[in-house]
Amino acid sequence: MLAASQDVSIDDFKKTLVQAVNLGSMETNLRNAVFHWLRSHGNNKQIVVRDEMTSRESLDYLRKAQITWERRIQKSLESMCEEIGINLSCLRSSVDRDEMLQKWNELSTYNTSLERLRPVYAPKDFLEVLFSLHNPNYRMISDDMIWDFSYLPLKVKTLPELRYHFRDLATADLLLGLTCCQCLTTLSCGSTSQGEQERIALGEKVLLHQHAPVCQEFLKLGAPRCLRGRLWAQILGSNSKTSEQHYSELKQRVLHYDMLIDKLITKDIQLTACNDDQYFVFEDVLHQIMLCFTRDTDVLSVFNNSTSHPILTSLKGKPPMEAIYPPNGIIPFHGFSMYVHCSLLAAPVCYLFNDPVPLYYTFRAFYLRYWFRLHVISSHPQSILGLCILFQRLLQRHETKIWSHFMSHNIHPIRVVFKWLMKGFSGHLLPEQLLNLWDMIIAYDSLEVLPLLAVAILSFRKDNLLQVTTLQNIDSVLVDLSSLNIMSLLQLALKGPIKM
Questions:
Q1: At the top level of its lineage, which domain of life is listed (predicted)?
Q2: I need a surface site. Which of 70, 385, 479, 494 has the fewest CB within 10 A?
C-alpha cells in the first residue's frame, strides 16, 4: 500500500520509499515485528537434530517421559468423567446458556456442582515425575545421586554467568521497588517520590515511541505501577494482537459449550484465589479470563515450541469424533488459576487493567512466552527441569550449610521450593513484590530469576532453617514471605556471594 502511494516516486523508488517509511509509524512497526519474530523463533533453541520430532526435544527419554505423563493426565480426566457420570464436553441447554449470560459479570454466583471433582494433578505429582526420570546413558551408583540431578546432561548457568546476564539489576542504584514494599491499594500516580515521578515521565516518553526493545531496556530498572500494564503489553506484543471480536467469539464458545475443564477451573479458583485476601475481589474476572482461555485455539501455537502435545480424546456424539481437549490443549493443574497464565499466574494481572480484553491478551502472551515451560518435561534450560537443576546447583555450591543440613535430614531441597518455581511465586509473594519479580522476567527475557530468588530466600532465612529438621517445619519457616523485598534480595545475590 505504501509503495503504491503518492509519497513514493517510481523515478527514485528506493529513496522515496525509505523516506515514506520514516515519516509514519511503519518503521517502528517493522522494528517491533522483527523483535517479536526473533524472540518467538529463538524461544526453543536446541542443538542440531535429525527431524521435527527431535527438534523440540533431543533427549529420547525425556520425550518418552512427557508422552507417558500426558497419557496419565488423559487417563485421569477420562476416569473422572466415568466416576461422576458427565461428558468431557457437551452443548449447554438454552436455560443454562441464558443463566450464564445473565451472570457473566458475576460468574462466582453461577451454580455448578463441584463436590466430587478433584484436580487432575498438583505440582507435587509433577515433581514425582521429574524425580523418576532416568538417563539410560548414566549408571546410577546409589539413590543419593538424585540429589542434584547430576545424571541429567542439562547445561545451566553458573552464578557468574547469572551475574553477567542480570548485570543491570545487580548494579542499579535507582531501582524501583528496591527500598520499600508498596501496597497495591491504588493505581494512581499521585503521592510518589521524586525518583518515581522522574521514572514515570521517562516511561511516558518511552511508550510514546512504541518501540518494544526500548521498553524492555526501560523495564530493567523497574516499572512505575501506572505504566506497568502498557509496558508489558508493548514488550510481549499483546497490544498489537488485541481483538475484541476474537474475545467476543471466545465468550460465545463458553456460552454454547459446557466442559469438564470449566468445573475444574471454577473449583481451582475457589480453592486458591478466592481464599487469598489479595485476589478474591477479582474472582469474577478470573472466571471470564480462564474460561475464554480454554476455548482459544490460537494457544495451540505453543506446541510448536514445546515438547508436549495436546490431548486427543473421543468426544461422545453422533458420530463420535476425536478432537483436541480442551480446545486450547492446556490441562490445568491445582493452582493453575493463580497464573493470570493462566502463564499470567492469573490473579495479579487484574491489578493492571480495567478492561478484560487487554488483560486477556497480555495474560495469554505471558503464557505463550514463559509459563508453558513450567509444566512440561524438557531439556530446555528454562524449562521447569532446567530451573530445578539451576536452583540445586546454586544452593549446593554457594549455600553448602543449608544443602548439607537438608541432606543430613533426608530433605530434598527441591521439595521445599518447587511450588514457588512452578507457580512463578504467585500466591506466595505480596502482589507488588510479585509484579516486581515478573518485571525482571520480561525485562531480561528469562525465568532464571526464579531459582536465583529461591536460593536468596533460603539464604536469607538460613539461621531459622538450620534450627529445624523436618520438611513440615521448614515449610513453616518459609510460609510467610510478606516481609521480603524481592529486588533487594536479588541485588544481594547478584552483587556478591549469596550470604545474607
A1: Eukaryota
A2: 479
Which grid cell is 149?
540431578
**What HEC string does 410-447 produce?**
CCCHHHHHHHHHHCCCCCCCCHHHHHHHHHHHHHHCCC
Which distant-in-sequence residues (6+ apart) come within 8 Å of 248 by Cβ? none
- Rounded to whole angstroms, the Cα distance separating 359 from 351 reads 9
Distance (Å, rounded) from C-alpha 318 to C-alpha 234?
46
Grid cell at residue 296: 482459544
Contact 343, 369 (CB under 8 A): yes
- Measure the CA–CA gap between 336 and 416, rounded to whole angstroms: 19
**Rounded Cα distance, 217 and 206, in Å:** 10
340 located within any domain:
yes
Structural domain count of the chain = 2
Q: How far is CA 119 from CA 295, 341, 368, 371, in A?
A: 19, 17, 23, 19
357 and 244 within one domain: yes
Among residues 330, 356, 371, the one where a domain terminates is 371
Domain harbouring 153, CATH code: 1.10.472.80
User: What's the length of the chain?
Assistant: 500
Model pTM score: 0.85
Handedness of CA 252, 255, 256, 260 (dihedral sign): positive
pLDDT digits 0-9 by tens, 135-179: 887 766 655 545 567 678 888 999 999 999 999 998 887 787 775
Residue 197, C-alpha cell as written in the block:
515521578
